[in-house]
Fold these 2 entries.
Entry 1:
Amino acid sequence: MINSSICTIGDEILIGQIVDTNSSHIAQALNGIGVRVTRMVSFGDDRQTIISSLERELKENRIVIVTGGLGPTKDDITKPALAELSGSRATRTDARQLEIIHRLLKAKGLDVLDINAAQAAVPDTCEVIPNRLGTAPVMVFRFPAERFGHECTLYSLPGVPFEALGAIPDIINDIKEHYPADDISHKTIMTYGLAESQLAKLIEPWENSLPENIHLAYLPNPLTGVRLRLSVYGGDKTAEDKIIGEQTESLRKILGDCIYAEEDTNLQETVGRLLLKSGKTLSCAESCTGGMISHLITSVGGSSRYYLGSVTSYANSVKENILGVPAGIIEKYGAVSSECVAKMAEGVRRITGSDYSVATSGIAGPGGGTPEKPVGLVWIGICTPDRTETFSIVYKNDRKRNIERFSASALDFLRRAIEKDINNL
Amino acid sequence: MINSSICTIGDEILIGQIVDTNSSHIAQALNGIGVRVTRMVSFGDDRQTIISSLERELKENRIVIVTGGLGPTKDDITKPALAELSGSRATRTDARQLEIIHRLLKAKGLDVLDINAAQAAVPDTCEVIPNRLGTAPVMVFRFPAERFGHECTLYSLPGVPFEALGAIPDIINDIKEHYPADDISHKTIMTYGLAESQLAKLIEPWENSLPENIHLAYLPNPLTGVRLRLSVYGGDKTAEDKIIGEQTESLRKILGDCIYAEEDTNLQETVGRLLLKSGKTLSCAESCTGGMISHLITSVGGSSRYYLGSVTSYANSVKENILGVPAGIIEKYGAVSSECVAKMAEGVRRITGSDYSVATSGIAGPGGGTPEKPVGLVWIGICTPDRTETFSIVYKNDRKRNIERFSASALDFLRRAIEKDINNL
């Protein structure tokens, strides 16, 4: 396997102000094409440190991916350091990136300042992959064998996460082109409803019987559930795809409807796909999730084709006056109750005229729990064209994570309800 | 300053399955006592890699903090590697940790297996700081100057985040006892409304005149704006704090109300703080932002004290039927218009009874734009107790980023409106 190293440059990482999440995404992508990550290193915005650290990584790895330190301001010194490292004596301006800079700033109604235009200037020792999402281009430095003892390549990416993530496909294509790897096939299977340890125990016999050239990775995420990634190495593509198809079939027999997709997706896209398929519409009523479910649903492009809207009823007065939850229900059962979420779901479905609706009421924390209704308890209500269902779960996380779990679980119950209706047609 | 390195051991980091958050917390704690973190490194569960990587870090740093690889299973080999590195020829059992192991497992109703008890056995070359939260103790290896060229210390912590975090105070106390440190002061200044490059140009003369021992970093984020971080080294705490106070004052003269806080915070917390200060309440009406503003506001603990709720009016029928936007307004001006967001803001304020309200209507993309109303256009409406204001901006990002920018800008206009009212009192 080809060895690689992922480097992050920035004082803000070293003082703990920012958690580096880019490296993890890059590592997933590299592993996906059979490139081994041997090390991840973060170091500061200091020219000599950058040069000596990168020299070390290039001696020991064929591929080095660097993020960060490419901003327009003067604390960002990755570019001059790379110029020195690669022996560049002049810069050239990349016309494609310059055009992108003009377009991005013009769209924001901003003038192109010298420091902006300077971002398109790169050392004459590198190739450029234009960055359509931001002003700093991706720079590719290819070093001959005599420099570090083996041919190696350094990719320099912006540190801003959405720009770094946006650049990954181009980097991966370039690596595939220059470093012929074995055939490798992947399949992603999305599951929801089982914790990673439960899932691992349930599929242990299946996992133990997997052929040696299949690798299984668990990628848990509070918003998507556990993503299983099957990778098959060392055969030809057709044989590998066949093995993956068979193993997915076996897995489906074990996990049933905990599997919600056989591609890399999420619950909100899956719900959208199901609604489009059945030609139905959706609305939400959110209390403890505070708008996050609606945010997730509308993060999908084209969601206006099936999504009508929502009411975030944070105050009880909003539950009563806008959603029409009877005051007596809240008095008798409390806002966090099966009865209340049922009325919330029915209320928002009535006032928006949607086919389906989903409602949440719970206690995200940190304060507010009681022994009967602890922090982490959520009630979820689902209205379909012919029934209302409610569910409750208790999570034990902090506020942020509880809100994520509540929202994802609500989307999963909704997904199951719509799937059931489609299957019963 | 004393230099340190933070190392993370575990294959799960290198395949991108887990994001390392321990290092960030440890870095914050080290910076807080004036210990500089020069590098963070992650490497795999391989004995020779562990030894050679740690030797390298110890040569270059007085303090090395290692997390991970201390579990009971056989793929965790940090302990034997540390035994070899430190020249240990025997293990000893730490009685305090053994007692903790018995107590923790008993509490879970589990028997103490040999592999559990073995966790209290440590190389005879280390000191132990008992870990009250888990079974693996913290090990402290002190190396004399002749070994790596300077006296240095290696701390080995468990990788489980809550155990690693739990061990930090003990480690910090040990470091303070053994390494008398310099003072260091930080200040974070939050700005919104200027792009990083605009901001840099505006404050360039100020930045150029900063004393040599002050370091400035720009940390842009679509949801919080550009965070400026000032760090002062090399004086005593009182003098450093005085310099920071003076420089912040100069900066405020340049940036004015683009500065929304002088601590590490965000717009939603700032809006919450202002509402609590003035005893007022808030509601939202969201179209293009789809619930994200409401999600951000309710991500703040205690937001129910000032936040009543929201309506996400994705469909025009919801704008009309729930928010009471006259159909004629939408027909005449379109949903993405000053007139429509004004009515949306007024409508949600009326039906919830809040003091303030904020409304958005725009085109997040990817499709849906026209030459007059391009993708990236957002109208923002703000209602205060005595006026309605509307604003428009055009962003040019992808859907996800546009929604974030729209939401943050809406919160910033709201922040300015509430500040204005407070200042006019």
Note: Chain A has a mean pLDDT of 92.
Entry 2:
Amino acid sequence: MKYAIGVDLGGTNIVTILMNEKGKIIARNKRTTEGWKGKNHVLKRMAEGIETVLENQRDKETKRQIVGIGIGTPGLVDFDKGIVYEAPNIPNWDNVHISRIYRKKFGIPVFLENDANSAALGEWWIGAGKGTRHMICLTLGTGIGGGIIIDGKVYHGANGYAGELGHIFLSFDGPKCGCGNPGCMEAYASAIGIIRRTKELLKKNKGSLIYKLVEGNLRKITPAIITQAAHKGDKLAIKIWKDTGYYLGCGIASYANIFNPEIVVLTGGMTGACSLLFKPMWKTVRKRAFKGAIKNLKILPGKIPDDAGAVGAAKTAFQRTM
Amino acid sequence: MKYAIGVDLGGTNIVTILMNEKGKIIARNKRTTEGWKGKNHVLKRMAEGIETVLENQRDKETKRQIVGIGIGTPGLVDFDKGIVYEAPNIPNWDNVHISRIYRKKFGIPVFLENDANSAALGEWWIGAGKGTRHMICLTLGTGIGGGIIIDGKVYHGANGYAGELGHIFLSFDGPKCGCGNPGCMEAYASAIGIIRRTKELLKKNKGSLIYKLVEGNLRKITPAIITQAAHKGDKLAIKIWKDTGYYLGCGIASYANIFNPEIVVLTGGMTGACSLLFKPMWKTVRKRAFKGAIKNLKILPGKIPDDAGAVGAAKTAFQRTM
């Protein structure tokens, strides 16, 4: 049996997992990233995570059978060279040759993957996409990340930039997106987009429960608060999720026409809104996509939200060595 | 050396090509489809095309080394079973088991491919996309067809419906598309979309040269006529191509963010408008796509417009047998 280590370097936490090639999680460690303490501290935290999942392996044979370490990381990555050029939220992170550092330290090969791609691969391997060949993954968070799985592998495109699935246009002149352009799906349906729409609508709906829940402080609005209000019957909150479902549905209908995937997996905190979001989304997808393209389509929330990134990172190590 | 026959079953013509595995065209035949005469007549015309490219091969060895016949066809296709369920413009075409018919007749395997995918594969193999790995192809005609080449192969999706690239949404409530939904790229930038926009704009621009060229009969408007007027400096015609470039640019920018392809190939008659179309299109793509995703991107017109479908069909036969 072969083993691999997967590391998910997140803005808040580092999740480290030791897995076997059959997809079983052998050991797991979660620790805070403490990115504000800078590059060297984060590299040390990551190394500690790796050591922790290794140290309990009494069986030396396991250690010997580890094919590599996979690391899922945000920012700008060179997969081939093993360099992370930029890491958001970590000061003085500057072209870190991360695979050389850990290869030297642990004596095994190190492979990098983009965090959204890692999460997609993790969900494909042992999560919601298990058993499929072609999968689209949307990570609904502050922004909207994406991952494309084709024939069980991450599709990277010509130079690693493929899968920016949040940046499909829904309109010519919609709200401005973080990428600088108007009308991306991300500008409508990410947490930032949802909060912006909520603030606009609240101006004319002062009676909404959302106001009370944030005690009048609009900076406190989060998707979770909107969900809370919606579950208590607040009409504005319900409308906001309905609109969000519509926007996501428009994007997913395009993705169905383009990819004809077996499954679209939605990950990230927002999927907690569940049927509030999924119902209007499905309605739009059914209306807007080709019937043949969605004949057997599933749209499901992620199954392993906490571990998908690390699991996908471990799978990356398996795929690049075996 | 291995050989394959490629057939492009078009609405107007049937193109049949004999190729070797290195991509050299050995023999070629073009004949009218005469679809109005019905199924059996079309099947006979196709068989005649195949016989014609074969009969001049004095070298019996060539015939012996033919791996198969590939057929690129419009309509609804079952690739695995080798059935064409529907063929637009051919009466009484009803679930024709085309691969069984020709396999029996010629004694070699027969493989089907969708016509837009065939054209994409042909352009990838020996045309504008030669030497690339990942390519997107848009066929600009009455509608907008698409083909996705990943790692040198057509990407089909879960059940063969992938690649409907004309049906990416550009707006929530744009003009109605042939697919029934508002706002698809096809509704803006296909020949039908262009002619619709031209007619609208002509209402307020009675002095346009386009009026004269069609002798006041708006039914005679074609993209070629608009190009003719634009080349003579007609402002309205220039604006129409500029807008078309903008719409295509919006779609292609999304495709760059999604696929990060090495090349986008545009085929079909409309590419004759050339810089009238390509300049505004590139301007929009540069503005709207991620810099990394278009760093080395090429957008080129097809190189083998007449043969792409048949060449891709021959390549299909090679790929499925070798």
Note: Chain A has two domains: 3-123+306-321, 130-301.
